[in-house]
Write a structure and sequence with these properties.
β7 and β8 form a beta hairpin. The protein folds into 4 domains: 142 residues, 3-Layer(aba) Sandwich (Rossmann fold), CATH 3.40.50.1390; 108 residues, Hect, E3 ligase catalytic domain fold, CATH 3.90.1750; 106 residues, no CATH class; 94 residues, no CATH class. Strands 2-1-3-4 form a 4-stranded parallel β-sheet, with helices on both faces. Strands 9-13-14 form a 3-stranded mixed β-sheet, with helices on one face. The protein has a 3-stranded antiparallel β-sheet with strand order 10-11-12. By secondary structure, it is of the alpha/beta class. Helices cover 50% and strands 13% of the residues. The radius of gyration is 35 Å and the shape is elongated.
Length: 518
């Protein structure tokens, strides 16, 4: 038997992903809408559900699909919503959607309110829409207030930056913790930039891209925007700063990857005179490029490949046209073999190394004793900074000159940064973060055998050797090899202990040099 029952559709919406995951919001709305349809004798022919969609937006996938289906229908369809807030959460959006449903051939109904076309019904409808809008704004305000309060307590409330992840610490609280190996990679990058090991952001980029574990963009590269964000994010120093909520330098509950002093050094470097970016052709192919200089003119040697009959051959050469060595190629294998020999001559005997290590151990213990006096000195400086801050606050309170107040506030921020650095130093001096062996592990490896690190497959390790073992560029002559090497202090001391050996590479005997100018 044919039926003439009125056809209806249900429309449901939830605004948060949490409501989607729990499954209660959408299903309960649909049940109530279908119960209403059953009471009214309607036949429900479709259900449209928007998941995680704001009530302030009109551009919702399922809502648009419903309006398109209504326009295709040859008869009027009843659109059932559970509550007025499910349609929209502000008056303007509600009115626009109400008109769109009517224009598409639909009729809006709800078990919670009767939609009428007379003036009184419209007034009630708009009042309820206003209440829904107020509730949405109030909810958002309460969420912001709760998030701000948690941030003031030292909890990070935004998505965690690379190197961190959220971890549940209670049923309703989460804390950001280190996410390895990303955290260690970020830590090394930030500390290396502060120390000068990485001179440019390009070098940081090369370092990050050498670690497959570090996240990158869709093109497979680490972009400079991410590097700049890492360098300028105070969160890595254990501090929470959220200017939109007027929160500055709040001590976080999370573990810092770097000290606040390191963070400030990076800001100073970013504000300083920009250095030339690292050359793109500086790579593992020519690791000594730019570091070895020409013995004739002192200019850094450049490098490249010359085309032979069957293949290309790698060379180092001087590019200064006025130099007597201009264009005279030095075989890559020859120069780098001489450099290996130089490094091997710097390697101390095991007895000398053990003696140096014991000396460092004694110095470490002596340093620990002196640390007690340093703590007292740092506390005195901290008290002086606190006194200056109190004086500035008093001056600000008693002054109504805008420019003077701004100057005082800048000085107050500088003092606040000094306070944080002093507190960190006091804490680290009183409680060292690592033991002696951990602190000097890499340094010991480099002192014991610099060749081992030089033969690493990582370009940054090679650069570390160059910057640590030598104090400046090394002149090289095609006929003699390396001139007197500018060796750094620790290696010079070891050579003195060894017996005063010369840092020259004994390559071609002791006869007078013949081929290079002096």
């Amino acid at each position: 038997m044919a039926t003439n029952r009125i056809k209806a559709v249900t429309y449901c919406r939830v605004s948060s992903d949490k409501q989607v995951r729990t499954g209660h919001g959408l299903s309960s709305q649909d049940v109530r809408c279908r119960e209403y349809a059953s009471r009214m004798g309607y036949e429900v022919i479709a259900s449209y559900q928007d998941e995680g969609q704001s009530g302030k937006l009109m551009d919702r996938p399922k809502l648009k699909e419903m309006l398109a289906d209504l326009k295709k229908s040859r008869e009027q369809i009843v659109v059932i919503i559970d509550d007025i807030s499910r349609l929209a959460r502000d008056v303007q959006t509600h009115i626009a959607l109400r008109s769109a449903i009517l224009s598409a051939g639909g009729k809006l109904e709800s078990p919670s309110i009767e939609f009428g076309e007379d003036s009184d019904s419209r007034l009630v409808e708009h009042l309820l829409a206003s209440v829904a809008a107020h509730q949405r704004e109030k909810n958002a305000e309460q969420v912001r207030n709760r998030m701000r309060a948690r941030a003031q307590q030292g909890f990070w409330v935004a998505p965690p930056p690379v190197g961190y992840q959220f971890q549940k610490i209670s049923s309703n609280q989460s804390l950001i913790v280190r996410k390895e190996p990303q955290a260690s990679i970020v830590q090394e990058a930030l500390e290396s930039f502060a120390s000068g090991r990485f001179e440019t952001q390009t070098e940081i980029k090369d370092f990050l891209e050498s670690h497959v574990e570090f996240p990158r963009g869709r093109d497979g590269k680490v972009h400079y925007q991410r590097i700049k964000a890492m360098l300028t994010h105070p969160l890595y120093s254990g501090r929470i700063t959220l200017p939109k909520w007027d929160i500055y330098n709040v001590k976080g509950k999370h573990e810092a990857l770097i000290s606040y002093e390191t963070y400030l050094k990076n800001q100073d470097r970013l504000r300083g005179v920009a250095k030339a970016p690292a050359r793109k052709d500086l790579s593992l192919d020519f690791p000594l490029r730019g570091f070895v200089s020409c013995s004739g003119c002192g200019e850094p040697l450049t490098s490249g490949h010359t085309k032979g009959r069957y293949k290309h051959y790698p060379y180092y050469f001087c590019h200064r046209k006025t130099c007597s060595e201009y264009g005279k190629a030095i075989k890559k294998d020859q120069l780098e073999s001489d450099f290996d020999e130089l490094l091997n001559n710097l390697r101390p005997s095991q007895e000398v190394f053990e003696l140096a290590k014991r000396t460092f151990d004694d110095l470490w213990e002596d340093r620990k004793e002196k640390a007690k006096g340093e703590v007292l000195s740092l506390k005195a400086k901290l008290a002086e900074v606190a006194k200056q801050s109190d004086n500035l606050v008093a001056h600000i309170a008693g002054n109504d000159n805008g420019s003077i107040i701004l100057a005082y506030e800048r000085k107050l921020r500088d003092l606040e940064e000094q306070r944080i650095v002093l507190e960190e130093k006091i804490e680290n001096t009183r409680h060292p973060t690592t033991d002696h062996s951990t602190t000097f592990r890499t340094a010991y490896k480099l002192l014991e055998n610099p060749v081992f690190m030089w033969h690493s497959e990582r370009l940054e390790d090679k650069r570390t050797v160059l910057r640590t073992v030598f104090t400046s560029r090394m002149p090289y002559c095609r006929e003699e090899g390396f001139r007197t090497a500018p060796i750094a202090l620790p290696f010079r001391v070891l050579r003195v202990i060894e017996g005063g050996k010369s840092p020259m590479v004994p390559r071609r005997g002791l006869e007078p040099p013949r081929g290079c100018p002096h």
